[in-house]
Every structure is written in structure tokens, then in C-alpha cells.
Input
Amino acid sequence: MSPQPASSDRPLAVVVLAAGQGTRMRSSRPKVLHEIAGLPMLAHALIAVRGLEPARVAVVVRHERDAVAAAALEQVPDALIVDQDDVPGTGRAVEVAVEALGDFDGDVLVVNGDLPHVDDTTMRSLLLEHVLHSASATVLSARFTDPTGAGRIIRDGDGTFLRVVEERDASPEERAITEVNGGVYVFRSLHLQHRLAGVGTENAQREKYLADLIPLALQAGEIVIAVPAADAGVVEGVNDRVQLAAAARRMNDAIVRRHQLAGVTVIDPLTTWIDATVTIGEDVEIRPNTQLQRATAIERGAVVGPDTTLVDCEIGAGARVNRTDGTLAVIGAGADVGPFAYLRPGTRLGASGKIGTFVETKNAVIGAGSKVPHLSYIGDTEVGERSNIGANTITANYDGVHKHRTTVGSAVRTGSHNVFVAPVSIGDGAYTGAGTVVRKDVPAGALAVNVAPQRNIEGWVESHRPGTDAATTAARSQGAQQEDPTP
Output
């Protein structure tokens, strides 16, 4: 990680608070690990932090410690993981982080891990104001029409920032204030550890509040400021499932807009969900009710949707994917998939190939120009190039104990209603007849059929189903044929 500071010559350390359980989420999962746009909330905060290129990053953990630490290290591999003890509160969390930072001398940026919308631009602006005012402590604030649940920013008649009051400790007059604490702070490291040790727990929550540093700095004659965010939405936190859904919608709107401005046509943004990790090329068209998740990548000119969900899929240039559910699949350029296709992991469709209506594939490689048009299951299979798999084909890959592979060569034509009992191989250029069950390898250029002569039992319907519509209709037809001597 680069030691370059974000806005001054002083080094920067960042402390990310991720120790809380988030009881209002009513979940066994830590709040910061609930996902928005394909990433945990904590990851979004850490990605923003990475953009500041800080000298050090410390992440404070406690509830579900190992899971939260793993998520943090995935985004910032050299982050310092700091364990909070039984003393509750943000003040204690920062105190143990500062102890872990040791002799660090510079600015310490503190950010809550449940702020998925916070960005490096906002934090850079806050750091700049901190430096320009020679402040000892700086708080990011925001104004909300409904500030319920948030700590209030208290100012004097001249607008000078005095303190933060948590809602449970606030008077009715203070609760009427609409400027709130945004959960992002900057402190000079000088005296920080000493002052944190002096913060008490004399409040309704019996917690050690980080915001209680503000009055201590003022008493010492130092400068403290509260800087309103240009966009209040960047500090909208998430405390319950309602706010989680609202945060997801806000982020998705931003993601969709970013892709639209980059040359992607999104027919219906309200029903299109795109994870932050998805990449999309120019001139791609995304049709309604489509979800693009995880590491999905779509190349130029492809058309995806409607009613499609793709997870960790690669879609080639000019491909079309319609009403499809796909996971860990690779679709070649110009290929055609769907409608109503189910692509399971390991599916690879070559350029200009086709996986059609009501087709399920799994661990299947289908070569360039080859087609599985409809009503088939193709699993643990390799198909060469320019082959056509007939309707209602099944690769019987499981013997009850083990999975086996089927190999189909190039330029093969298989009949409808075939079953390939794996392990079996169909050679290049071979044909199979309709209704064939292939249990043995088929040589190149051969025709495979199951010989079963057809028997017609005259009068069976009339004798076995007398009085039915079929019997009377057949009798009428036979009578008509006897009356008409024309051959």
C-alpha cells in the first residue's frame, strides 16, 4: 500500500469500525457482511478507503470476528485486524485501533463499516477541510429531513460546532435538529490515545462514544469542525432490512447510470440489477428483469434478457442470451442461448453455437457452430464443432455411484429422443436414428440405430376400448375406407 497521504504532507491512517453485531438487522450474519450490489457493505467502505492510498488501514472486529476479518483482508490484504474487547462503543474501538497503530504520527480517518455509499471523493474533501482549518478533529455531517436514529450535530448561535449528541441522550429540542453525525471523522494522532483513555460511559447506552472527543478537544483550546457532505446520501447507513433495500436501490441506480453513460442500453433500469463487480462493453443491450451478478462480463454488442440471471458468466461479443439462468458459464461470440435455458457451472458454448429452449447443461463443452436446440439435458459432455443434437436428448452421465463423460465429435447429427449412456463416444460425422439408446461407441461416419420392428395390431382399439371416442371414430374411418374403392 502506498504511503502517500490523501490531502497533505502528513501520513494518513484509516480505522474502519466493523465490530458491531447490528441487532436491528435481526440476523445471525454481522451487519457489515450483508451484501449490496454483490459485495458486503464493509467491502464498499474499504474500496473507498483504498482510493485514499493511506499508509495504514486498521479494521476493528469483534462479532463473528473471523468472517469479518476475512472480508476485510479480501479488499485490503495488508490491513491490520484489531480485536475490540468487551468495552462497548466506537470510542473503545478507535482506542484499541490507535494502540495497534503504535507510534503512528499523522491524521487518523475513522469510518463506519456500514456506510456503503461513502466514497473517496467525499473523504478527500473532508481531509482537505481538516488540513485547511488546522483542525484537531473534523466530523462529516449531513442534513436529513428525517434524522431519526442518528446523533445530532450541536452548534452554537454562530454556527460553531460544539458536540455530537446521540439520540437517546438528546433533549426534545436537540432531537429536532436535522444535521446529523455522518459516521466519518478525522483526528490528529497527537494526544488521541491519551484523550480516548479519558472518555467515559456516562450515557444512556453505557458506551464509550468516539464523539465525546469533541468537547475534550475544545476544552484544550483546539479547533474542531463539522463539515456537511455535499450529498447527504453518501453517509446513509444501514441499520435494518428496510434501509438495506433502500441502499441497494440507490447503489443499483448509480451502477446502471454509469453503464448507460458508458454506452450500454438498459431498457428498464427499474427491473435491471447489476452488481458493482460486473463489466459490460459498449453497445450491449440489457432487457427488462435481468440480474447480472458477481464477476459476470459481457462483451460488446451482446443482448441479454429479458428475464435472465447470470452469475459469474462470460458472454462473448454479439451473443444473445434470452430468458436464461446461468452460473459460471462461458458463451462464445455470436452464440444464441434460450429461451428458458439453464446453464450450470462448467458450461462452455463456442462461437455461433446454440443452446436452445428448455435445455439444461452442466460441465459441458459445446464447440463452435454446434447446436443443442431444445428439450435436452447435456451433462459431463464434450461436443465438437458444427454438430446438431436432436430434440429431447439426454446424456445419462450417472450410474448411481460415479459420473461419466460423453464425447460427441464434429459434424455429428443425432436423432430426436436419444439417450447417450456414458461413458460413450460418437465419432466425427456420425448419425444416430430417432429414439436410439447409444450404449456403445459409434465410429466416425456410422449410423447408430436400435433395431425394433414396428408391429401394427389391427382392431386393438375396438376390442380393448369399445365404446370410446377413439373406437367409434376408428370404426367410422374404416367404414369410409371400405366404401371408397379408390386405391
Q: What stands out?
A: The CA atoms of residues 62 and 84 lie 6 Å apart.
